[in-house]
Amino acid sequence: MSSEAALRPFGESEPEGGPSQAHLTDYWQVIARRFWLVLLIFAVTTASAVWAISRQRTYYQARIALQVNDPMQRTRSIAPRQTFSGMDVFTDPIQSEIQLLHAAPVANRVAEQLGLRLMPASPDVPRSSLMRDVYVAAEAPEGSYRLVYDAAGRLAELWGPDGMVLGRAAAGEVLETDVFRFTVQPAPDEVREHALTVSSLEGASGIVRGQLAATPRQNTNIIDATYTSSDPVLAPLILNATAEALRAYGAERMRVSSSAEARFIEDQLVQSREQLQRSLQQIQDFKRTGAFTNLSAEEQALLDRNQELRTRIEQFDSERSMFNRVTDEVQSGGISETDFARLSTEIGGSSNPSLGAYLDGVRT
């Protein structure tokens, strides 16, 4: 036996059960003794995860594609572009429509149409689960209201801020008061009382603008608009109403602009006719006082002025007819159905830069 081996306490071999063995049985015995504790931790963790997932709110997203027509596309190379202080000014119709989608007039129109001033106080309760086809009068006072169901959840009463019953109706019927009207829905859950709030029109329009998004589709004249909400019924209603409000707002702007231009031309026509009458009177007075038939320089200037005024009157008449025709077509078919390119060709927009520039401005 070597001296190195003799120095070892156990010689060449180590006894069984030495520190080099894994002792897996000991680990299992520890786990077995704590089995219920391990099982309890696993159960609590799993239950907490399930509860957290069940409490998460479900969101729904509605989508719509809006096409922005550019009716002056074919005549853009003919009609001169507008300039301001020597700088070329170009308005992007796509970005303009996106800005109008988020504009306050459009959101206010949608809020009024869908009665968004009346909403559940809790964001976890979709309004469509309580009521449909909501109307809120402009004079409806702001405040807190309550929708109270009976024990069966089939009959609902609307209580005012003072606790007075404003109206009652069964599920599926219309509940109507002086300032509210909506179709009652069955109670969505075991809760029989739901708090409601009536906000201002500005606050209701924030519901529309806050969850509305719009992006242009690359290399097209199409805008992809989306609206996200926890209410599966209200989301598409708001998005469709926004698109309709945008079209109506554009038609109204077109009508107002055309009417203003027509009134301006009417004023110019009156002034031009008055100047023409004065010029003709001056010519007649000159002929009566003059003892010769040859035209003098003063008389020739009056005749030239007379011809210039006649030309201006014809131009104003033509522009007035154009504005009246544009207004009639927009009012009859809507701005989306108006073919501005055809109008520009028929009324001579390509040969008249001012008319072509106006049509291009109206289109945006």
Keywords:
364 residues, alpha+beta, three-stranded antiparallel sheet
Describe what is shown at a glance.
This protein has 364 residues and is α+β, with helices and mostly antiparallel strands. Helices cover 49% and strands 18% of the residues.
What does this protein structure show overall?
The protein has helices spanning 3-7, 24-33, 35-55, 93-101, 104-114, 201-210, 234-289, 297-333, 340-347, 353-363; strands spanning 60-67, 83-84, 87-88, 118-120, 131-136, 143-149, 155-159, 165-170, 174-176, 180-184, 193-198, 212-216, 222-229. The protein is α+β, with helices and mostly antiparallel strands and 364 residues long. It has a five-stranded antiparallel β-sheet, with no helix packed on it. It has a three-stranded antiparallel β-sheet with strand order 1-13-12. The protein has a three-stranded antiparallel β-sheet with strand order 5-10-9. A hairpin with a 5-residue loop joins β6 (143-149) and β7 (155-159). α5 packs across α6 (201-210), α5 crosses α7 (234-289) and α7 (234-289) runs antiparallel to α8 (297-333). The longest helix has 56 residues, at 234-289.
